[in-house]
Amino acid sequence: MDYKIFKKMTEDENYILSGKKFDNYVIFIGICEIDEKPSFILEKRAIGIRQGGEISFPGGKIEEFDENPEESAIRETMEELGIPREKIDIIGKYGIQTNPYGMIIHCYLGLINIKKLEELNPQKSEVERILCVPLEFFFNTPPQIEKIQLNHTPNKFMQIKNIPDSYRKPWKGYKREIYFWEYNCDVIWGITGEIIFDFIGRYNNMRNYFENIL
User: Fold this and answer.
1) What is the pLDDT of residues 106-115, one digit of tens each?
2) CA distances for 15 relative to 18, 19, 68, angstroms
3) Is 96 in contact with 49 (CB distance < 8 Å)?
4) Given this model, what pLDDT does residue 145 score?
């Protein structure tokens, strides 16, 4: 047994176990400042594509030709919003989100350097329209919270011996919260809602931290 291999296997702190089974995506949490209001740039996805009609951040699947996830996030944002590279400033990687639907989502945080929405030329095949939602709205508006429960259903081929019989029939999974905001008749929820909920909580915690050390 080569213990040098054990050591090498622990060097990547971002390694996700069984990550190759999942599809890898990126999203860009893009913030612009219009009318002196820091705002999220969101998209209403075009009807006819996956999750059409829903509200999301710019993003998409990581392609083999992308140098790294960050470049994927930049490429997708440029394509969907129709803006040049110099209008996008990546601050850094915000985090990695996993979900029970077989997706790993690499989230990047940054700035979209525009002064008005007319500077954007969204890709009509993917984007129905652009939303500019002030961060202040989310800080001042608690989401409506609902809960769902995911269940596990074994297929008919699950005939492995010596496992408890309880796993040969459907069993309950964990409950998870879903966050909803209604903004100008659009509903922001799902993966986008989870990311925004995390962002607002994390920002408030960081702000309290910095206020306490000053």
Assistant:
1) 999 999 999 9
2) 9, 8, 15
3) no
4) 97
